[in-house]
Amino acid sequence: MKGVMKTVKYITHIKDVPELNEEEKGRLSKIEDKFAFRANDYYLGLIHWDDPEDPIRRIIIPSEDEFLEWGALDASSEAKYVRVPGVEHKYRDTALFISQDTCGAFCRFCFRKRLFMHSNKEVTRRYEEGIEYIRNHPEILNVLITGGDPLIMATSKLEGLIRQVVTIPHVKIIRIGTKIPLFNPYRILEDPALVDMIQRYSNGDKKIYLMVHINHPRELTKQSRQALKMLRNAGAAIMNQTPLIRGVNDDPDVLAELFLQLNILDISPYYIFQCRPTLGNKTYAVPIAEGWDILENAKDKVSGLGRRARLVMSHKTGKIEIVAVTPEKTVMKYHRNADPENFAKVMIYKTNPNAYWLDDFEEYQTLLKETGQEGDNDPYTYW
Length: 383
What we know:
By secondary structure, this protein is an alpha/beta fold. It has a domain at 10-67. It has twelve helices and 14 strands. Strand 5, helix 4 and strand 6 form a beta-alpha-beta unit. Helix 5 (155-166) runs parallel beside helix 8 (192-202) and helix 10 packs across helix 11 (288-299). The N and C termini lie far apart (53 Å).
Protein backbone atom coordinates (compact mmCIF):
# COMPACT_ATOMS: atom_id res chain seq x y z
CA MET A 1 0.00 0.00 0.00
CA LYS A 2 2.18 2.80 -1.34
CA GLY A 3 2.49 5.89 0.82
CA VAL A 4 1.35 4.23 4.04
CA MET A 5 3.87 4.38 6.85
CA LYS A 6 2.81 3.44 10.33
CA THR A 7 4.88 2.49 13.33
CA VAL A 8 2.86 0.22 15.61
CA LYS A 9 3.80 0.46 19.27
CA TYR A 10 3.72 -2.80 21.21
CA ILE A 11 2.61 -2.87 24.85
CA THR A 12 3.60 -5.72 27.16
CA HIS A 13 2.24 -4.47 30.51
CA ILE A 14 -1.36 -3.64 31.30
CA LYS A 15 -0.21 -0.57 33.28
CA ASP A 16 0.90 0.97 29.97
CA VAL A 17 -2.57 0.85 28.38
CA PRO A 18 -3.48 4.56 28.50
CA GLU A 19 -7.24 4.05 28.18
CA LEU A 20 -7.48 2.12 31.48
CA ASN A 21 -7.83 3.99 34.75
CA GLU A 22 -5.47 3.38 37.66
CA GLU A 23 -7.95 1.17 39.53
CA GLU A 24 -8.35 -1.09 36.47
CA LYS A 25 -4.60 -1.23 35.91
CA GLY A 26 -4.07 -2.28 39.53
CA ARG A 27 -6.63 -5.08 39.40
CA LEU A 28 -5.69 -6.43 35.98
CA SER A 29 -1.92 -6.24 36.47
CA LYS A 30 -2.21 -9.15 38.90
CA ILE A 31 -3.23 -11.39 36.02
CA GLU A 32 0.10 -10.73 34.28
CA ASP A 33 1.82 -12.73 37.00
CA LYS A 34 -0.01 -15.80 35.68
CA PHE A 35 -0.83 -15.14 32.02
CA ALA A 36 1.22 -12.83 29.81
CA PHE A 37 -0.24 -9.66 28.29
CA ARG A 38 0.69 -8.23 24.90
CA ALA A 39 -1.13 -5.74 22.68
CA ASN A 40 -0.38 -2.79 20.42
CA ASP A 41 -1.75 0.69 19.91
CA TYR A 42 -3.35 -0.15 16.56
CA TYR A 43 -5.46 -3.00 17.93
CA LEU A 44 -6.27 -1.21 21.19
CA GLY A 45 -7.54 1.64 19.01
CA LEU A 46 -10.35 -0.61 17.75
CA ILE A 47 -11.88 -0.84 21.24
CA HIS A 48 -14.94 1.22 22.15
CA TRP A 49 -13.69 2.07 25.62
CA ASP A 50 -17.04 3.43 26.83
CA ASP A 51 -18.53 -0.06 26.36
CA PRO A 52 -17.42 -2.45 29.14
CA GLU A 53 -18.66 -5.39 27.02
CA ASP A 54 -16.88 -4.37 23.84
CA PRO A 55 -15.88 -7.58 21.97
CA ILE A 56 -12.43 -6.32 20.92
CA ARG A 57 -11.71 -5.43 24.54
CA ARG A 58 -12.84 -8.92 25.46
CA ILE A 59 -10.32 -10.45 23.04
CA ILE A 60 -7.27 -8.56 24.29
CA ILE A 61 -7.81 -7.09 27.78
CA PRO A 62 -7.52 -9.52 30.74
CA SER A 63 -10.48 -10.53 32.86
CA GLU A 64 -10.24 -11.38 36.54
CA ASP A 65 -12.31 -14.47 35.74
CA GLU A 66 -9.13 -15.93 34.23
CA PHE A 67 -8.19 -16.84 37.80
CA LEU A 68 -10.98 -19.46 37.84
CA GLU A 69 -9.41 -22.91 38.10
CA TRP A 70 -10.54 -24.83 35.02
CA GLY A 71 -8.79 -26.87 32.41
CA ALA A 72 -5.13 -27.53 31.76
CA LEU A 73 -2.33 -25.60 30.09
CA ASP A 74 -2.04 -28.21 27.33
CA ALA A 75 -5.70 -29.10 26.95
CA SER A 76 -5.20 -31.13 23.75
CA SER A 77 -2.00 -32.89 24.88
CA GLU A 78 -0.04 -31.34 22.04
CA ALA A 79 3.26 -32.06 23.79
CA LYS A 80 2.50 -35.76 23.34
CA TYR A 81 2.84 -35.35 19.57
CA VAL A 82 6.15 -33.43 19.52
CA ARG A 83 8.51 -35.67 17.52
CA VAL A 84 11.56 -33.40 17.44
CA PRO A 85 11.97 -29.89 18.88
CA GLY A 86 9.49 -27.60 17.15
CA VAL A 87 7.59 -30.24 15.16
CA GLU A 88 4.27 -31.87 16.05
CA HIS A 89 3.06 -34.83 14.01
CA LYS A 90 -0.42 -35.86 15.11
CA TYR A 91 -2.22 -36.58 11.84
CA ARG A 92 -0.62 -38.78 9.20
CA ASP A 93 -0.34 -36.23 6.38
CA THR A 94 0.14 -33.01 8.38
CA ALA A 95 3.03 -31.71 10.46
CA LEU A 96 3.08 -28.56 12.58
CA PHE A 97 6.15 -26.36 12.80
CA ILE A 98 5.94 -24.44 16.09
CA SER A 99 8.20 -21.63 14.91
CA GLN A 100 7.51 -18.84 17.39
CA ASP A 101 6.57 -18.26 21.02
CA THR A 102 5.14 -14.79 20.57
CA CYS A 103 2.36 -13.09 18.58
CA GLY A 104 1.36 -9.62 17.48
CA ALA A 105 -0.81 -9.63 20.59
CA PHE A 106 -2.06 -12.27 23.00
CA CYS A 107 -5.69 -13.36 22.77
CA ARG A 108 -6.89 -13.96 26.31
CA PHE A 109 -8.42 -17.32 25.33
CA CYS A 110 -5.31 -18.64 23.57
CA PHE A 111 -5.00 -22.42 23.82
CA ARG A 112 -1.19 -22.21 23.58
CA LYS A 113 -0.68 -19.60 26.30
CA ARG A 114 1.77 -22.05 27.87
CA LEU A 115 4.25 -21.09 25.14
CA PHE A 116 4.27 -17.55 26.49
CA MET A 117 4.85 -18.73 30.05
CA HIS A 118 7.57 -21.39 29.97
CA SER A 119 10.44 -22.38 27.73
CA ASN A 120 9.89 -25.88 26.39
CA LYS A 121 10.83 -28.19 23.55
CA GLU A 122 7.64 -27.39 21.64
CA VAL A 123 9.21 -24.26 20.12
CA THR A 124 12.47 -24.00 18.23
CA ARG A 125 14.20 -21.31 16.20
CA ARG A 126 16.63 -23.86 14.80
CA TYR A 127 14.82 -25.67 12.05
CA GLU A 128 17.31 -28.22 10.74
CA GLU A 129 16.11 -31.15 12.84
CA GLY A 130 12.47 -30.45 12.01
CA ILE A 131 13.16 -30.17 8.29
CA GLU A 132 15.02 -33.47 8.39
CA TYR A 133 12.10 -35.13 10.23
CA ILE A 134 9.62 -33.95 7.58
CA ARG A 135 11.98 -35.00 4.79
CA ASN A 136 12.16 -38.50 6.25
CA HIS A 137 8.36 -38.88 6.48
CA PRO A 138 6.98 -39.00 2.93
CA GLU A 139 3.41 -39.31 4.22
CA ILE A 140 3.54 -35.62 5.23
CA LEU A 141 1.85 -33.61 2.46
CA ASN A 142 0.96 -30.49 4.49
CA VAL A 143 3.16 -28.41 6.76
CA LEU A 144 1.51 -25.87 9.04
CA ILE A 145 3.89 -23.15 10.23
CA THR A 146 2.40 -21.80 13.40
CA GLY A 147 3.34 -20.68 16.89
CA GLY A 148 2.89 -18.04 18.21
CA ASP A 149 2.62 -16.17 14.93
CA PRO A 150 5.09 -16.84 12.10
CA LEU A 151 4.48 -13.37 10.63
CA ILE A 152 6.11 -11.86 13.69
CA MET A 153 9.35 -13.05 12.08
CA ALA A 154 11.31 -10.95 9.61
CA THR A 155 10.33 -11.87 6.07
CA SER A 156 13.85 -13.08 5.32
CA LYS A 157 13.75 -15.52 8.23
CA LEU A 158 10.26 -16.78 7.37
CA GLU A 159 11.27 -17.23 3.75
CA GLY A 160 14.34 -19.15 4.86
CA LEU A 161 12.06 -21.69 6.57
CA ILE A 162 9.53 -21.83 3.73
CA ARG A 163 12.32 -22.29 1.18
CA GLN A 164 13.54 -25.35 3.04
CA VAL A 165 10.03 -26.80 3.29
CA VAL A 166 9.24 -26.38 -0.41
CA THR A 167 12.40 -28.28 -1.37
CA ILE A 168 10.88 -31.42 0.18
CA PRO A 169 9.25 -33.19 -2.79
CA HIS A 170 6.32 -34.77 -0.95
CA VAL A 171 5.19 -31.52 0.77
CA LYS A 172 2.55 -29.92 -1.46
CA ILE A 173 0.87 -27.38 0.81
CA ILE A 174 2.40 -24.93 3.28
CA ARG A 175 0.01 -23.33 5.72
CA ILE A 176 0.79 -20.26 7.83
CA GLY A 177 -1.34 -19.73 10.93
CA THR A 178 -1.58 -16.00 11.63
CA LYS A 179 -3.58 -13.18 13.17
CA ILE A 180 -1.10 -10.48 12.15
CA PRO A 181 -3.37 -9.12 9.38
CA LEU A 182 -5.83 -8.27 12.16
CA PHE A 183 -3.43 -7.37 14.97
CA ASN A 184 -1.05 -5.32 12.81
CA PRO A 185 -1.98 -5.06 9.12
CA TYR A 186 0.91 -2.64 8.57
CA ARG A 187 3.20 -5.66 8.84
CA ILE A 188 1.85 -6.59 5.39
CA LEU A 189 1.07 -3.14 4.00
CA GLU A 190 4.60 -1.86 4.56
CA ASP A 191 6.54 -4.95 3.49
CA PRO A 192 6.38 -5.64 -0.25
CA ALA A 193 9.02 -8.34 0.25
CA LEU A 194 6.48 -10.40 2.21
CA VAL A 195 3.91 -10.16 -0.58
CA ASP A 196 6.58 -11.03 -3.16
CA MET A 197 7.57 -14.06 -1.10
CA ILE A 198 3.97 -15.29 -0.90
CA GLN A 199 3.66 -14.89 -4.66
CA ARG A 200 6.91 -16.72 -5.30
CA TYR A 201 5.78 -19.86 -3.47
CA SER A 202 2.04 -19.81 -4.24
CA ASN A 203 1.91 -19.96 -8.00
CA GLY A 204 3.83 -23.10 -8.91
CA ASP A 205 3.13 -26.73 -8.14
CA LYS A 206 2.86 -25.96 -4.42
CA LYS A 207 0.50 -23.68 -2.55
CA ILE A 208 0.59 -21.38 0.47
CA TYR A 209 -2.55 -21.23 2.57
CA LEU A 210 -2.98 -18.49 5.16
CA MET A 211 -5.03 -19.72 8.11
CA VAL A 212 -6.19 -16.42 9.58
CA HIS A 213 -7.92 -15.89 12.91
CA ILE A 214 -10.72 -13.36 12.52
CA ASN A 215 -12.90 -13.53 15.62
CA HIS A 216 -15.24 -10.57 15.06
CA PRO A 217 -16.33 -8.46 12.06
CA ARG A 218 -15.00 -5.27 13.67
CA GLU A 219 -11.45 -6.58 13.26
CA LEU A 220 -11.95 -6.13 9.51
CA THR A 221 -10.85 -2.52 9.23
CA LYS A 222 -9.89 -0.70 6.04
CA GLN A 223 -6.25 -1.54 6.75
CA SER A 224 -6.78 -5.22 7.53
CA ARG A 225 -9.01 -5.67 4.48
CA GLN A 226 -6.33 -4.16 2.27
CA ALA A 227 -3.65 -6.38 3.81
CA LEU A 228 -5.75 -9.50 3.27
CA LYS A 229 -6.48 -8.51 -0.34
CA MET A 230 -2.77 -8.04 -1.01
CA LEU A 231 -2.02 -11.53 0.30
CA ARG A 232 -4.86 -13.07 -1.67
CA ASN A 233 -3.83 -11.23 -4.87
CA ALA A 234 -0.32 -12.60 -4.37
CA GLY A 235 -1.77 -16.07 -4.81
CA ALA A 236 -2.32 -17.29 -1.26
CA ALA A 237 -5.51 -19.14 -0.43
CA ILE A 238 -7.02 -17.68 2.73
CA MET A 239 -9.14 -19.60 5.22
CA ASN A 240 -10.61 -18.29 8.46
CA GLN A 241 -10.95 -20.14 11.73
CA THR A 242 -12.14 -18.81 15.06
CA PRO A 243 -13.11 -20.26 18.39
CA LEU A 244 -16.62 -19.54 19.60
CA ILE A 245 -15.95 -17.10 22.44
CA ARG A 246 -18.31 -15.88 25.13
CA GLY A 247 -18.75 -12.13 24.81
CA VAL A 248 -17.05 -11.95 21.41
CA ASN A 249 -18.95 -13.94 18.78
CA ASP A 250 -21.49 -16.04 20.72
CA ASP A 251 -24.31 -14.37 18.79
CA PRO A 252 -25.88 -15.62 15.53
CA ASP A 253 -26.03 -12.09 14.09
CA VAL A 254 -22.33 -11.49 14.76
CA LEU A 255 -21.30 -14.82 13.23
CA ALA A 256 -23.58 -14.28 10.21
CA GLU A 257 -22.04 -10.86 9.61
CA LEU A 258 -18.56 -12.37 9.94
CA PHE A 259 -19.40 -15.07 7.37
CA LEU A 260 -20.78 -12.44 4.97
CA GLN A 261 -17.69 -10.24 5.25
CA LEU A 262 -15.45 -13.27 4.73
CA ASN A 263 -17.38 -14.14 1.57
CA ILE A 264 -16.92 -10.60 0.26
CA LEU A 265 -13.17 -10.85 0.89
CA ASP A 266 -12.97 -14.27 -0.82
CA ILE A 267 -11.97 -15.91 2.46
CA SER A 268 -13.46 -19.31 3.23
CA PRO A 269 -15.14 -19.84 6.61
CA TYR A 270 -13.35 -22.96 7.82
CA TYR A 271 -13.47 -24.08 11.45
CA ILE A 272 -15.53 -22.73 14.32
CA PHE A 273 -13.59 -24.16 17.23
CA GLN A 274 -15.03 -25.21 20.52
CA CYS A 275 -13.02 -23.16 23.03
CA ARG A 276 -10.50 -25.57 24.51
CA PRO A 277 -10.59 -26.21 28.27
CA THR A 278 -7.29 -24.40 28.72
CA LEU A 279 -6.34 -23.01 32.12
CA GLY A 280 -7.95 -19.60 32.53
CA ASN A 281 -10.45 -20.06 29.69
CA LYS A 282 -13.69 -20.89 31.53
CA THR A 283 -14.96 -17.33 31.22
CA TYR A 284 -14.58 -17.50 27.42
CA ALA A 285 -16.11 -20.94 26.80
CA VAL A 286 -19.59 -21.72 25.50
CA PRO A 287 -21.20 -25.15 26.12
CA ILE A 288 -21.33 -27.34 23.02
CA ALA A 289 -25.13 -27.53 22.84
CA GLU A 290 -25.43 -23.74 23.05
CA GLY A 291 -22.64 -23.25 20.52
CA TRP A 292 -24.31 -25.61 18.08
CA ASP A 293 -27.55 -23.61 18.34
CA ILE A 294 -25.68 -20.31 17.82
CA LEU A 295 -23.88 -21.59 14.73
CA GLU A 296 -26.98 -23.12 13.16
CA ASN A 297 -28.92 -19.89 13.66
CA ALA A 298 -26.04 -17.95 12.12
CA LYS A 299 -26.00 -20.28 9.10
CA ASP A 300 -29.72 -19.73 8.68
CA LYS A 301 -28.97 -16.07 7.96
CA VAL A 302 -26.44 -16.63 5.14
CA SER A 303 -26.16 -18.43 1.81
CA GLY A 304 -24.37 -21.70 1.23
CA LEU A 305 -21.10 -19.76 0.86
CA GLY A 306 -21.27 -18.87 4.53
CA ARG A 307 -22.37 -22.31 5.65
CA ARG A 308 -19.07 -24.05 5.01
CA ALA A 309 -17.82 -23.60 8.58
CA ARG A 310 -17.70 -26.72 10.75
CA LEU A 311 -18.05 -26.75 14.52
CA VAL A 312 -15.13 -28.83 15.81
CA MET A 313 -13.11 -29.53 18.92
CA SER A 314 -9.40 -30.26 18.82
CA HIS A 315 -9.38 -33.11 21.28
CA LYS A 316 -6.22 -34.96 22.29
CA THR A 317 -7.46 -37.94 20.26
CA GLY A 318 -8.26 -35.97 17.11
CA LYS A 319 -10.35 -33.26 15.56
CA ILE A 320 -13.99 -34.04 16.32
CA GLU A 321 -16.84 -32.46 14.40
CA ILE A 322 -20.10 -31.76 16.24
CA VAL A 323 -22.52 -33.00 13.58
CA ALA A 324 -25.87 -32.47 15.31
CA VAL A 325 -27.36 -31.63 18.69
CA THR A 326 -30.96 -32.40 19.64
CA PRO A 327 -32.57 -32.19 23.08
CA GLU A 328 -32.01 -35.93 23.39
CA LYS A 329 -28.81 -36.79 21.52
CA THR A 330 -25.52 -35.22 20.45
CA VAL A 331 -23.84 -36.66 17.37
CA MET A 332 -20.09 -36.27 16.83
CA LYS A 333 -17.69 -37.65 14.25
CA TYR A 334 -13.92 -37.85 14.02
CA HIS A 335 -12.94 -35.37 11.31
CA ARG A 336 -9.23 -36.16 11.84
CA ASN A 337 -7.94 -39.01 13.96
CA ALA A 338 -4.63 -39.51 15.73
CA ASP A 339 -5.44 -43.19 16.31
CA PRO A 340 -6.41 -45.18 13.15
CA GLU A 341 -9.02 -47.01 15.22
CA ASN A 342 -10.99 -43.76 15.39
CA PHE A 343 -11.15 -43.34 11.60
CA ALA A 344 -14.59 -41.92 10.68
CA LYS A 345 -15.91 -42.96 14.08
CA VAL A 346 -19.35 -41.60 14.92
CA MET A 347 -20.33 -41.08 18.55
CA ILE A 348 -23.88 -40.60 19.79
CA TYR A 349 -24.27 -39.39 23.36
CA LYS A 350 -27.16 -38.34 25.49
CA THR A 351 -27.13 -34.56 25.27
CA ASN A 352 -25.46 -32.86 28.20
CA PRO A 353 -26.29 -29.12 28.10
CA ASN A 354 -23.38 -28.40 30.44
CA ALA A 355 -20.73 -30.21 28.38
CA TYR A 356 -17.81 -28.20 27.01
CA TRP A 357 -15.62 -31.10 25.85
CA LEU A 358 -15.79 -34.75 24.82
CA ASP A 359 -14.67 -35.80 28.29
CA ASP A 360 -17.74 -34.13 29.79
CA PHE A 361 -20.01 -36.34 27.70
CA GLU A 362 -18.16 -39.47 28.70
CA GLU A 363 -18.30 -38.59 32.40
CA TYR A 364 -22.01 -37.72 32.08
CA GLN A 365 -22.73 -40.98 30.27
CA THR A 366 -20.92 -42.96 32.98
CA LEU A 367 -22.93 -41.18 35.67
CA LEU A 368 -26.21 -41.96 33.89
CA LYS A 369 -25.27 -45.60 33.57
CA GLU A 370 -24.23 -45.85 37.22
CA THR A 371 -27.54 -44.34 38.34
CA GLY A 372 -29.59 -46.56 36.02
CA GLN A 373 -30.88 -43.68 33.89
CA GLU A 374 -29.45 -44.93 30.60
CA GLY A 375 -30.66 -48.52 30.81
CA ASP A 376 -28.48 -51.08 29.06
CA ASN A 377 -27.45 -48.77 26.23
CA ASP A 378 -23.84 -48.45 25.23
CA PRO A 379 -22.20 -45.17 26.28
CA TYR A 380 -21.99 -44.39 22.58
CA THR A 381 -22.77 -45.95 19.26
CA TYR A 382 -20.42 -45.84 16.28
CA TRP A 383 -20.07 -47.43 12.91
